[in-house]
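[job 4471] stage=fold_predict status=RUNNING
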Amino acid sequence: MKKTIIAVTFVAMFLAILVIAMKRAHKEHNGKAMTQLSFSLDHANMTSVAHREDSKQTSNAEIGPNKWEGHRIPNREERLGMSRKERLALLESLGHLPDDRDWSDFEIGEETSWWGRRLDPKLFWKDKVIWLDGTAVGEAWSYGRAYPPMPYEDPSVQDRSDEDLPCSGFELESPNYNLALSAREIAFWDKFGKTHPLPPRKIIDWQTERANRLLDDINVLTNRPEHAARLGLTEASSERTLESDRYHASFMGSTGYPAECISAEAYRWAHIMQKRKEYEEIQAKGKNVDSLGLTNLFRRVYVDRKYITEPLSAEDLHAANAWKREYLRRLRRENTDESYINAYMKEWGLSSNEVFDVSHN
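[job 4471] inference complete, writing structure tokens
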């Protein structure tokens, strides 16, 4: 019983961390954010739910004819204007929650016949790189599963029960809803995360957060020496920060955040690329450009503004991608599955020639 409680609590914490990535993934990939879906980690708690006798059936998941196929699905506002009976019939027909789901969709979704059924791994992972990221977890949630289906059998976790746990509900900031999962799924994805490369966006987000912190400290040390003294910042602080980040990355194991992304130069370019993106988003407003937004943006830019406002040269881009090329070469030397290398190159806009042809470096 204790093992079950510990395992389930781990899942609650894990999913709480992933929810931020899920919001970003849904917004960027689907154009629809799960704006009302957020965890309160302090209140994450498991509640008892009854087993579904059909939970081991596999589905992906069209239960019966889908009358909405080929037609526009009512959006969130329209669904809120429907009766509960109409919404239940809609979800039953869809076989999954819509992309713009909210709390009430989860609540009603639990009443469908397909909620929590196992997903077909071949269908789920078709044409996808196997990563446990916000997009994959969000898709699993839309079917009532806490995790995506295990893409292959791992002999090292076969001793764990694959029966859905009797406690699979999460006490959230809004009414509870229940996601199905098994002890074997928990063990599988825990091991997977420790033995496979991290998703590219997770690496970049982590690197950018560390980069901004480092450059902020350098700025304080340079321009506000009295404040720096109160904070205990010295000339050696930057290297200590980098050492701390390297330790944090290595603590995750051999497939944690790549060592190549941790350096003063890599951090400088991470900062530049993030601020360029923010600048472009503000400029995209055209006549409605937010002057206050620009002021606030440049207040926290710690490089020459030309790197933010002017096009980058080929040499600049080459320098910005230096650590990525080194990381990808290491992955190939270590015989990492090429699907991951190709996914990194696609996400980062790099070609195979740029990375692996020595004449380009």
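[job 4471] summary: Residues 200-320 form one domain.
[job 4471] exit 0
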